[in-house]
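subagent[fold] <- orchestrator: predict structure for attached chain, return tokens only, no commentary.
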Amino acid sequence: MRYDLFGVGLAMTDLLIEVPGTILEKYHLHKGNRNLLSQRKFQAMRDSLRPPLEVPAGSTGNLCMAFATLGGKAAMFGPRGNDDLGKRYHEKMESLGIFPFFPIKKGSSSALINLITPDAQRTFAACIGVGYDYDDEDIKTASQLAKESHVFHTEGYLFTHKKSEKAIKEITKRANTISFDPCDIPVINEKRAEILSFIKTNVSMLFINEEEAKALLNAKNSTFLPGLEPLAKIVVLKLGAKGSIICNKGARYHIPPVPTVVKDTTGAGDYYAAGFLYSYLQNNSLEECGKGGAMLASKVIQKIGTDPSIILG
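subagent[fold] -> orchestrator:
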């Protein structure tokens, strides 16, 4: 295979800033979730805050960066704008050894203001820009890359627009092993039927946290695991400070968390998936894969942002 991992997702830059909780109330943001803003409102918010820390990210981007830093051969695809933000994103990915496939579109690149409150929780204010703008040539290119990769990974955010949803469904047809993270409760609530159908039909490895799982299954209590297990060959339920549970062929493996001081939970799930997939492609046991994911997650939450160099520290 040409690549170990091929990711398709939003080529999104995080703009990280620590803020008091009152900021969320001021801008009517739902804490802990992604809040989608118009370009005008997004720019007004950005202008009102002090200069943020700029970090290339996005769910799939975080995963690819961590995976490549571990030594895996990764490629990523996602439309970007004809602006400096998109150019810097491309350059950063390339500098980390990721093979970059970021078609340039007329408009602004995807960006997200990552508001970190004193309790280490993060709330997102996002402007997608051209991130959903896939054309037929993009689909053709990405489909070939998926065919040439051991694992194809993508994210739930792309199901919120007809162009990107169509692209993912077409690319998946050429993929080998398919990994998926729904990423966000509002996305699941909006596109539950489509995402659930996609998982059941295509996904080999599902990465999902507890609240997302409840939303996906429309569950009202904690007895949802039996309904989650059949959705994919391997289901990884991320439980935060309680660790994770890996389900496969009727077996369950509980992976304890790695004790650490939490500074910022941004990217924890993405880094977990990167550690898991890297170990999986080394033919390790599922328990070892879970431990690899837990270790990476524990590293990224020790500092603000998702700088993959912390993996090597």
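orchestrator: received. Logging for downstream: The mean pLDDT is 94. The chain has one domain: 3-9+57-107+129-308.
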